[in-house]
């Protein structure tokens, strides 16, 4: 009996360290990620596109890799290598700042950070609160049920991002259309995706030219009229920055706003904690949503996932594992965010969690450029929604678009 029990336990332990794994419940997925990280720092798998890649499971190892200049993205940017990933990367993404390496990456990043400084984002918060409440007023006037994606979660970050970049209000609806099209990975004719991308590029180049002539208080004006000679940027360089902010900025933020609402509605004990002290708890709640919120989207969670990969320029040893020159490697935020050596009680959604070194927004020089803006938008969106609608509840099942690179929620029916 004892031998049989030991054997069963060994088989269970072995099953829990298989990666990738088929979709399981969120709590089981969290425990599997924890067991995998305990077992080894990374796993090499064959991706659906681009061949093999190492997937990092441990939080500390992912941070080490992301801070090591021996890992680069140039072979993907130049087209020398296909990006190893779960879907085919759109070509235009490889022209953005996300695929630049130092020193160009650092130069562009430094300039953008001046425009998306904590000070500027803080100054934008009042207008974000005002706009969030206008959206809630409109929802109340229209009546329940409503699709929170269209009426709130997408509208708020589009407004804020457009304000930051300097897009005229009348042109803002175009960005949702362009983003949806350019991030599509299936079910869209190539000609249609190309046409949308061309429209976006031509629009942005015209806006860049306008800001060179007539600068305003916005990011495009800052970039087109940099005073320091060393900071002078070409239209192409400015475009590479603007595209990654436009395409990824509002879509990902909207998705996390929805994930946050779902997480809170699925965890009523945590929703009560929020409602008791909305302003005090919202900042840590947003970090926990970034860490664990996507686990609430489908009811099932399956590996793998990953940030944009890199290529090793020489042999590098990470936590005892040799990564050879030319091999691709990426961090898996789902694993790193549920690594028990970095985060306690990984399977628990805890909006008061104080120590939360998640890697959802990456790390180091590759940390998400729009992170200060995204955090502010999420804090405002969650706080104002539940402040005004404390009885918010689901009015149906959420719907996701799995044919889009970011797998956004497209329908989140709610009532109050």
UniProtKB/TrEMBL annotation:
InterPro entries: Cyt_P450, Cyt_P450_B, Cyt_P450_sf
Transmembrane segments: none
Domain of life: Bacteria
Alphabetical UniProt keywords: Heme, Iron, Metal-binding, Monooxygenase, Oxidoreductase
Keyword Iron appears in the UniProt entry: yes
Cofactor(s) the record lists: heme
GO molecular function list: heme binding; iron ion binding; monooxygenase activity; oxidoreductase activity, acting on paired donors, with incorporation or reduction of molecular oxygen
Coiled-coil residue spans: none
Family to which the UniProt record says this protein belongs: Belongs to the cytochrome P450 family.
PANTHER family assigned to the protein according to its UniProt record, in alphabetical order: P450, PUTATIVE (EUROFUNG)-RELATED
Name of protein: Cytochrome P450
Protein's organism: Gordonia alkanivorans CGMCC 6845
């Amino acid at each position: 009996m004892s031998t049989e029990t030991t054997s069963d336990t060994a088989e269970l332990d072995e099953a829990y360290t298989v990666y990738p794994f088929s979709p399981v419940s969120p709590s089981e997925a969290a425990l599997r990620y924890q067991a995998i990280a305990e077992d080894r720092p990374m796993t090499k798998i064959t991706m659906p596109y681009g061949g093999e890649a190492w997937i990092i499971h441990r939080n500390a190892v992912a941070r080490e890799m992301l801070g090591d200049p021996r890992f680069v993205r140039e072979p993907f940017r130049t087209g020398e290598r296909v990006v190893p990933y779960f879907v085919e990367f759109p070509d235009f993404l490889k022209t953005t700042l996300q695929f630049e390496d130092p020193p160009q990456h650092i130069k562009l990043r430094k300039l953008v950070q001046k425009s998306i400084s904590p000070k500027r984002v803080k100054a934008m918060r009042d207008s974000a609160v005002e706009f969030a409440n206008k959206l809630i007023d409109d929802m109340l006037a229209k009546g329940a049920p409503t699709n929170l994606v269209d009426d709130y979660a997408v509208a708020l970050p589009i407004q804020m991002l457009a304000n930051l970049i300097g897009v005229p209000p009348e042109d803002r609806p175009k960005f949702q259309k362009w983003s949806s099209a350019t991030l599509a990975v299936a079910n869209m004719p190539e000609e249609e995706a190309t046409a949308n991308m061309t429209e976006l590029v031509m629009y942005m180049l015209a806006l860049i030219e306008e800001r060179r002539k007539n600068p305003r208080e916005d990011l495009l004006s800052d970039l087109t009229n940099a005073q320091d000679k060393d900071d002078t940027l070409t239209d192409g360089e400015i475009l590479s920055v603007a595209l990654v902010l436009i395409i990824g900025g509002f879509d990902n933020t909207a998705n996390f706003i929805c994930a946050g609402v779902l997480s809170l509605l699925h965890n009523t004990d945590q929703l009560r904690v929020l409602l008791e002290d909305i302003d005090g708890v919202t900042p840590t709640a947003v970090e926990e949503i970034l860490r664990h919120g996507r686990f609430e989207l489908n009811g099932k969670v399956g590996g793998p996932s990953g940030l944009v990969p890199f290529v090793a320029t020489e042999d590098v040893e990470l936590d005892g594992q040799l990564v050879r020159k030319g091999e691709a490697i990426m961090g898996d935020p789902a694993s790193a965010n549920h690594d028990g050596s970095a985060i306690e009680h990984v399977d628990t959604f805890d909006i008061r969690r104080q120590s939360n070194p998640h890697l959802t927004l990456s790390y180091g020089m590759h940390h998400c450029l729009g992170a200060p803006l995204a955090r502010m938008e999420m804090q405002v969106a969650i706080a104002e929604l539940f402040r005004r609608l404390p009885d918010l509840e689901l009015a149906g099942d959420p719907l996701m678009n799995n044919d889009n690179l970011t797998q956004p929620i497209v329908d989140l029916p709610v009532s109050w």
